[in-house]
Each structure stands twice: as C-alpha cells, then as structure tokens.
Automatic annotation (TrEMBL):
This is Amidase. InterPro entries: Amidase_CS, Amidase_dom, AS_sf, FAAH2. Residues 24-464 form the Amidase domain. The keyword rRNA-binding does not apply. It comes from Streptomyces arboris. Pfam families: Amidase. GO terms for molecular function: amidase activity. The keyword Hydrolase applies. PANTHER family: FATTY-ACID AMIDE HYDROLASE, FATTY-ACID AMIDE HYDROLASE 2. GO terms for cellular component: endomembrane system. It is an enzyme of class 3 (hydrolase). Its EC number is 3.5.1.4. The lineage of its organism: Bacteria, Bacillati, Actinomycetota, Actinomycetes, Kitasatosporales. Gene3D superfamilies: Amidase signature (AS) domain.
Length: 483
C-alpha cells in the first residue's frame, strides 16, 4: 500500500494500529524524493541518513509503548530554520557553509513530538521574494506547472507537500510566505496569531538564536489537510521556554462554532488599491456559495471593516521599515533623499514602501499607533462576524521571473501589469494587525492551476478559522494530487 499522500492524522492512526512502520513511511518518502524532486527541486538539503535512524528510533519507541503526537511521521523543515549539523543559508551565497550547532525551538518541538525530519526545503534569497530561487540551491518549480513559481518564501515546503515529500512542513510568514505558496500549490497553511508560536532559531545565518519577538513575522504549519494544520499547530504553539514559557502555559480557546450553519462570515473579493483576478474571485465566490448552502450567514460588506487602503499602506510601511535596518549608510541616504522628494499626496503602495524604508523612530511610533487603531477595529468586527474570507493573492501562480531587481518586475492581473510587490496587499491584511489566517484550496483556474483563499479569524482564536477550514474541506474538497 502506498501512503505518500495520506494525511498525517491517518498516518498516526496507521502507526498506532501497526499497519505500517515509520521506517516504511520514511523509505517511501525518500524514494519519492529521489525519483521526483529533480523536476521540482523542493528539498534543498536532504538529511536521509539521520531520517532513517530517527525512524528506527520511532519504531522502537512505539514498541516500548510510547505515543507522541507525531511519532514516526516524516516531515520537512524550511531552510531558514536552524537544524543542528545542516546548513542554514537563507539562500545567501556568502553563508553557504554556515552550519548551526543547535536546533531552532520549533525543530526541537518537532523532534520532541516524534517527527522524522527528512531535510530542508528551498527558499528565496534572504526570504525576500514571492518565488523560491537562489544561487546556492536553484529554483523550486510549481508541481502543477514547472514553468511557474511555487511561491515564497516557504515555496519549497509547499511544493514538497504537493509532491508527496513528507506529510507536514513548517514555514514562516511575514508577507504571505506561508499562505501564498499554499495558494499557488493547492495545499493548506496557517499563519498563527502574532507571537503564538516561538520563533527562536529561525534567524539569518550567523545571527544569534535569541528569543526575540519579531514585528509582523510568525512561524506556522503547512499540510495537505485542514485537520493536520491543527495537529501541527498544537505542537508548535506556546511561548519560548527562555522567556514567557518560564511562567506561562497556553490554552487556545475552542472554535466559536462546530457547525457550518452557525458561522457568521464576511466575504471580500475587491481591494481598493489592486484588482483581483477573475480566477481568484471565482475561488472566493465558490467558498461563499458553499457557506451559503451550508446555512452560514454571509455578508459581502460591512461598515465595521477597517479601511483596506489605509491598512495596506500601514502594512507596506511596517514591512519596509523592518527590511531596511541592515542597509549600508550610502544606500539608506539615497533612499531617504528619494523619499523626501515624494509628493505629500502620493498615497501609492510604492510610496508607502519607500517611506517605510526610512521611517524615523518617531514616525514609526505614529504608524504603529495607526496599526493599534486598526487592531481595535478588527475587535469590533469580530463581535459581529466569526471569520473573513478573502484572497491570498490576486492571481494564481505566475511564470518564473528572475529579474535581478525585484522592483523592476511586474505582476500581470488579467493581462494588465502592476508593480510586483503590490500583490502583497491581501497577504498583508491579517499580517499588519497580527491576526490568524488559514489558507485553503478553493478550486482551480481555467488553466488548471490551484486557487486558494484565506480565512481570517479573531486575535488568539486560531481554532476558529482552522475549524471553518475543516468544514469547508468537507463540502468543497481539498488537496488534489498534481496531474
């Protein structure tokens, strides 16, 4: 029997029942990677010898009566996580030989739960792209169309899952890096509430693995089913044992509802600053129709919704401010001069990004205050609604574009070109206020490419969008094997 595309939940049951061993699952995954990954290039750092040893250990542990959440389950890890003995480069050639001596906290939690780590998955240069390619490891292709991107920055993980290379993966998300690859590859991903899962050890090469709280960025689970997201999130969630974990434990509140008909959902398809492509709108509409047919209350607009245009501008400024801290002085002064030349009434996304790169501390505090106002607006919205359904990105996966300057790239939306990074407006919607968001498959485009949507939930109520994802998976279907 082949187990390649089975859910982690089903594999756990099979292992408990003695229907399969971890060694068999691991060997099957490795065989598939060795056979198929030449065309996909998802697994950039294989660790097969240690994986086979871990699988043998898992089988022995189970024979002794042990039973941990992921005992014996083959998984992958995004390259940007420190794994002791394996390179962590973030795709940066200068650091191709950097090998950490200690696992990231989330890798430790995977191992503690009994998972078998097959290896690491590919990323873009410095994790700063909507594609996954770099000089060290090359390009990761979309399993549905090798001429298109698998997304970034967790594109290798998404492509690995869609190709059957392990049952689960862990990634990270600052600008849609979990959700966009899931949308492009037809899998599931969950961006947790900001701060819900410790990120120590998911750091650039040579940086110390400190228990810092990054702004906007989170780490989170990726899977082929909605229930598997919850399984993995339960392993990942919780404060860092070096900080709040010393005194705090964490219990997520239950989902607000268990039945589809009890959910109150706001559905969005249009953004004031960027069009949404026809294929993506159709995916959102498909989910909306399923909600209505399931008896849920569905609205297409609400005065409680925070201003989407202002939200995107705040997000772009915060995003850019974090990325410019390491710029050389000359480059920073050049950007500051350009920002000073912007017209006061220029409220474009490009202008927001440029202003963000040179925010003074005083100005950053003002932008952060505006973020807090938006967070409070979301609290009000979630007294009336349980979730918001909207796009992850305006298009399905696009053709590879390796232009050396990302600022010179364009994204085509139904044949019309827009600045490349404008496509982040939907991904930034829950990221800016730190809300949880679950990406789910919602069908395919006319060209046969996966299309996903995201389910945004209330702060710290991650189980609500995750439960809604499970219910929708039952009625609209979920992961499909690339043909």
């Amino acid at each position: 029997m082949e187990w390649t595309f089975d859910s982690a939940e089903r594999l756990v049951g099979a292992l408990r029942a003695g229907d399969v061993t971890s060694v068999e699952l691991t060997d099957e995954a490795i065989t598939r990677i060795e056979r198929d990954d030449r065309a996909i290039n998802a697994i950039c750092v294989p660790d097969f010898d240690r994986a086979r040893a871990a699988a043998r250990d898992a089988d022995r542990a189970r024979a002794r009566g042990e039973d941990r959440p992921l005992l014996g389950i083959p998984v992958t890890v995004k390259e940007s996580y420190n794994v002791a003995g394996l390179p962590t480069t973030w795709g940066l050639p200068l650091h191709r030989d950097h090998i950490p001596a200690e696992d990231a906290v989330q890798v430790s939690r995977l191992r503690g739960a009994g998972a078998v780590v097959l290896g690491k998955t590919n990323v873009p240069l410095g994790l700063q792209d909507v594609q996954s390619f770099n000089e060290i490891y090359g390009t990761t292709n979309n399993p549905w169309d090798h001429g298109r991107t698998a997304g970034g920055s967790s594109g290798g993980s998404a492509a690995a899952l869609a190709s059957g290379f392990g049952a689960l993966s862990i990634g990270s998300d600052l600008a849609g890096s979990l959700r966009t690859p899931a949308h492009f590859c037809g899998i599931y991903a969950h961006k947790p509430t900001l701060g819900l899962a410790a990120s120590r050890g998911m750091v650039p090469p040579t940086a110390p693995a400190l228990p810092a709280d990054p702004d906007l960025a989170v780490v989170g689970p990726m899977a082929r089913t909605a229930r598997d997201l919850t399984l993995l999130l339960d392993v990942m969630a919780g404060p860092d044992p070096l900080t709040f974990g010393v005194a705090h434990s964490m219990t997520l509140p239950p989902a607000r509802h268990e039945r589809l008909r009890d959910f109150r959902v706001l559905v969005l398809t249009e953004h004031p600053l960027l069009p949404t492509g026809v294929a993506v709108r159709a995916g959102v509409d498909r989910v909306a129709d399923a909600l209505v047919e399931g008896g849920a209350r569905v609205d297409r607009g609400s005065p409680l919704l925070p201003d989407l245009a202002e939200a995107a501008l705040i997000y772009m400024q915060l995003l850019a401010s974090g990325s410019s801290a390491g710029f050389p002085d000359a480059r920073y002064e050049q950007l500051r001069a350009r920002a000073a030349g912007l017209a006061a009434n220029d409220r474009s996304l490009d202008a927001a990004r440029l202003r963000g790169t040179v925010l003074s501390h005083r100005d950053w505090i003002e932008v952060n205050h505006r973020r807090e106002v938006h967070r409070h607006g979301w609290r009000g919205l979630f007294t009336e609604y349980d979730a918001v359904v909207c796009p992850v990105s305006p298009t399905p996966a696009f053709p590879h574009d390796h232009h050396s300057d990302p600022l010179e790239r364009l994204i085509a939306i139904d044949g019309v070109a827009y600045p490349y990074f404008d496509q982040l407006v939907w991904a930034g919607l829950p990221t800016m206020p730190g809300l949880p968001a679950t990406a789910i498959p919602a069908g395919r485009s006319p060209e046969g490419l996966p299309v996903g949507v995201q389910l945004i939930g209330p702060m710290s109520e991650d189980r609500t969008p995750l439960r809604l994802a499970e219910l929708l998976e039952r009625v609209i279907g979920g992961f499909e094997v690339p043909g």
